[in-house]
Design goal:
Elements lengths: L10 H4 L6 E3 L4 E3 L7 E7 L1 E8 L2 E10 L2 E3 L1 H6 L6 E4 L3 E7 H9 L3 H39 L2 E2 L5 E4 L4 H8 L3 H13 L3 E2 L4 E4 L2 H8 L2
Antiparallel strand pairs: 1-8, 2-7, 3-6, 3-8, 4-5, 4-7, 9-10, 10-12, 11-12
Helix pairs in contact: 4-6, 4-7, 5-6
């Protein structure tokens, strides 16, 4: 089979000995934040791309169907994966090492390498934008939750007392616990809330309303 990166070279020319692997549905193929060690070529099957939470693809931003390379952009740029990848159906793939993949790129003419790098950078910017939108959605949900659970104090200041564990609150919001903690940190940095214990003060309720879109 012809396996392309920008139509310029095939997985067979990179590593003729790469053997097909059968991957079952639900298996994790890529983890966001991880550096590429192997580069996978999906020969058949469908792969979901997005953000995993508790092992489930809660925030999906795209789907790949073979034949195609899986996140070749991160491999071309030698940067960490921006998203998680989960087998949405049984998948057959072949893998080549980063060393062999990089050598295959270095064997291309300089002009072809430049085009490939530009395409990879453009794709990565699009992915970063999609992931940032998910983060904003999480901030909006957290802002709305804080406003809906706020109570006015003696001096009129609004505050939320956390009667539940942050993990339980994150489940209600449909986000990972670490995402909830990260959003709270961002809200503090933006001077929208203050406090780091069981009581969170809503320093700027109007700013939270704007963030929540209400």
């Amino acid at each position: 089979k012809r396996c392309k990166v920008g139509g310029m070279f095939t997985v067979n020319t990179i590593d003729p000995g790469a053997q097909p692997q059968n991957i079952s549905r639900g298996q994790l193929l890529l983890q966001r934040g991880g550096k590429p060690v192997w580069v996978s070529y999906i020969e058949s099957g469908r792969v979901a791309l997005g953000i995993l939470e508790d092992g489930l693809m809660e925030h999906q931003i795209g789907v790949l169907e073979g034949p195609c390379w899986l996140d070749a952009s991160s491999a071309v740029l030698n940067l960490p994966h921006l998203v998680d990848a989960l087998a949405d159906t049984p998948v057959q793939l072949r893998q080549v090492s980063m060393e062999d993949f990089s050598k295959g790129i270095s064997d291309l003419p300089e002009a072809a390498q430049a085009v490939l790098t530009d395409v990879a950078m453009a794709h990565r910017r699009q992915t970063e934008f999609a992931v940032s939108r998910l983060a904003k959605d999480a901030e909006a949900r957290c802002a709305e939750w804080l406003l809906s659970h706020a109570q006015s104090g003696a001096q009129g200041q609004m505050a939320v007392e956390l009667h539940q564990r942050k993990r339980s609150i994150a489940v209600q919001l449909g986000i990972a616990p670490e995402t909830f903690s990260r959003v709270l940190r961002h809200l503090r940095e933006q001077s929208l809330i203050s406090g780091s214990g069981r009581v969170l003060n809503l320093v700027n309720p109007n700013g939270l309303r704007s963030l929540a879109g209400i």
